[in-house]
Amino acid sequence: MSTENNYTKVYKVNRIWTVLAFLLSLLVIPPMILTLIVSIRANDLSLFLRIFLIVFCFGFIVMVLIFLVFFFRGKVVVTQDKIQVTNIFATNFLYFNEIVEVRNSYKSIFVKSTNKEKKNLIIWTYYLKNGYEISNWLVPNYPDLDKNKKI
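^ that's the sequence the OP posted. Answer follows.
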């Protein structure tokens, strides 16, 4: 997939996380829909309880769907000159010359930008297939954000 002039590598969410998210949604969404229907139709519940159950169930269903879309859409693309993170709501990227510092943790990497107009990146390496490759490349090549802090 790589050539000398045009390097691109795509890191997608590991298949096991995608399958687990799908199974979780199958287990959680039907009871929430049933509770939503019952709370709409129940005449013996107080108005406050009905509104609470409707809002809670609807919000929970939306949250699970967003969680599910994250696992299907999320990816990190590393090209010759930039790193790009695609999540549910947006696609953000930083050129390598715009990276100031990185913070590496067990599940993610925080990438700080020099460009104030661009957002800093958070790369969730824990969920990516071969996400450790990103950590192994970024951490030695850029200063550690925690080591440069003055206490």
